[in-house]
Design brief:
four-stranded antiparallel sheet, 10 strands, mainly beta, 0% helix, globular
């Protein structure tokens, strides 16, 4: 019954200056709700400030996120401020169900 679920993160792996986040329950493939660039991924700096990060869909179930130079790279978040605002967090699955807010450890 994956088609009734929103995309859920299963892993986040650092590769140089990027982090690849893999998802389950993508219902065909990841996409954005507005057809624009992926928005909503962020890292936290050493002072606790949210640093928005550039991201792109890498494959049907993965997103590649660029690490900001000053980011604390132990965790990555998505939609941490307001998931309901697609201007800030627009990743969804093939059925259009939005990805919920999450924070996941980077390996």
């Amino acid at each position: 019954l994956d088609e009734t679920n929103s995309p859920q993160p299963v892993s986040a792996e650092k590769n140089g200056d990027t982090v690849t986040v893999e998802f389950k329950c993508v219902n065909g493939r990841l996409k954005t709700s507005d057809g624009k660039a992926v928005k909503g991924f962020s890292f936290t700096d050493t002072e606790g400030n949210e640093l928005l990060a550039e991201a792109e869909i890498l494959s049907e179930n993965a997103v590649k996120v660029k690490l900001p130079a000053s980011a604390d790279t132990s965790k990555i978040g998505f939609g941490m401020n307001n998931i309901a605002d697609i201007a800030r967090a627009n990743l969804c699955g093939g059925t259009g169900l939005p990805t919920p807010s999450f924070e996941i450890e980077i390996k």
